[in-house]
Amino acid sequence: MITALSGGGEKGLTLYDATREQIGEVLAGEPSYRIEQTWKGLYESFAEPENITTLSAALRKRLGEALPTALIPVRESVSDKGDTVKFLWHLADGNHPIETVLMHYADRATVCVSTQAGCAMACGFCATGQAGFNRQLSVGEIVEQVVRAARHAKKRKQRVANIVFMGMGEPLANEPAVWGAIERLHHDIGISARHLTVSTVGIVPGIRTLANRPLPVNLAVSMHAARNDLRDELVPINKRYPIDDLIEACRDYLKVRNRRISFEWALIAGVNDTARDATELAKLTTKLRPSAHVNVIPLNPTPGFPTRGTDAQGVRRFAKRLQDLGVNATVSQPRHRHRRGLRTVGGWSAGGADGATQHLGSEQGGQALATLVDLLTQDRLDDRSKQSPVIRKMHGELGAARAQ
Ligand code: SF4
User: Which of 133, 201, 222, 299 to mutate to test ligand 1, by most ligand atoms within 8 A of the CB atom?
Assistant: First the structure.
């Protein structure tokens, strides 16, 4: 068996994990141009493997048997305006659920990909963090998300121009596979480095590794708090890589890459939306000016859970405060919230169990909830996650909902 070496560990190699050489091994005995035909079919035409018509049916069969695809489509949901598509997949080797989001704009499309099945970072506001970690994704499992989304976009005659590594999981906790995917997306699909963005909660060694990689990709940091005591609570990895170390790594990244860094700030009412928070954040970004940008994420209040998003007026006030303090800050448009998948306080994540059940039918919460429901119903949660008050409460809510 050919095995995938990066990310996913010792598992069967999937189609989009395979290098040209490995495809050559599968097509042994065929003329070498068959490899190029396969490669073009996969990465230029985004063809379904069984539809690469430059190959004979027998060769397509041989390819499909040796190199299966990695993602099993489970659900696809489209926003009311049709501009956002969420895909829920199961990984072929174990039904771990992951998500991909495709966003259509006037002239291009953006794809948000997952990099891990689950996440070990345990951010307090995030459903994925509460549900725990399953496993790393391989290069092919990340790339296949983009290829499938690009295939979908192609039907609307749109080209995927931007990729954001902001879906389920912490990309820099799976940096080798993320980097392998970046190289494939850049070299073979033709997406430029300036249109590839890696978002992290602040894995300092990962930021330093990224700084030394050969392509200047964009860096985004999920900041959410600018003082250690609060950030320790919201983003527990902060205890290991406190704010000073994180900012120093960001500063070094900027020196090497000469790019702008984005800070994501999800506003939680009464938690991180005060004048003090704005002042603290401004102080941090000032250290990085002119190359730091703050992306303020407005969140809808979700009934039934004590942690609520800041209201629209509060969001505007916070952004204005930052701007008055000289910070390059913008408020992201509502649908950008979806791109964070399970990572933000948006959707049901901030709503916890109560909010989740109330959002069962909504476009906003449905996909995220479905992922967690899958984990719950398949009993795939680790022991730590099962102890989480949010998960325990949700389990009870789901049981009650089913009993009705
Ligand atoms: S916010 Fe991101 S890093 Fe934190 S637990 Fe959720 S998926 Fe992981």
Answer: 201
257-295 residue pLDDT tens: 888 899 999 999 899 999 999 999 999 998 896 689 999
Domain extent listing, the chain: 19-66, 71-403
What distance in Å separates the CA atoms of residue 37 and residue 95, rounded to the nearest whole number?
Answer: 31
SS3 68: coil
Q: If one looks up domain 71-403 in CATH, what number appears?
A: 3.20.20.70
Cα dist from 35 to 48, 292, 298, 305, 399, whole Å: 16, 43, 48, 54, 52
Residue 243 Cβ contacting ligand 1 at under 6 Å? no
Residue nearest to atom 3 of ligand 1 (CA): 170
Mean pLDDT, the chain, as a whole number?
83
Give rounded-to-5 percent helix, strand, coil for the chain. 45, 20, 35
* 333: CB partners within 8 A, 6+ apart: none
pLDDT tens string 40-96:
999 999 999 999 999 999 999 999 999 999 999 999 999 988 999 999 999 998 889
Tell me the whole-structure pTM to 2 decimals. Answer: 0.83
Cβ of 129 below 6 Å from ligand 1: yes
Calculate the dihedral angle through the C-alpha atoms of 300, 101, 247, 254, rounding to the nearest 10 degrees. -130
* Torsional class of 370: left (φ above 0), alpha (ψ -120 to 50), beta (otherwise): alpha
pLDDT tens for each residue of 2-55: 554 444 445 689 999 999 999 999 999 999 999 999 999 999 999 999 999 999
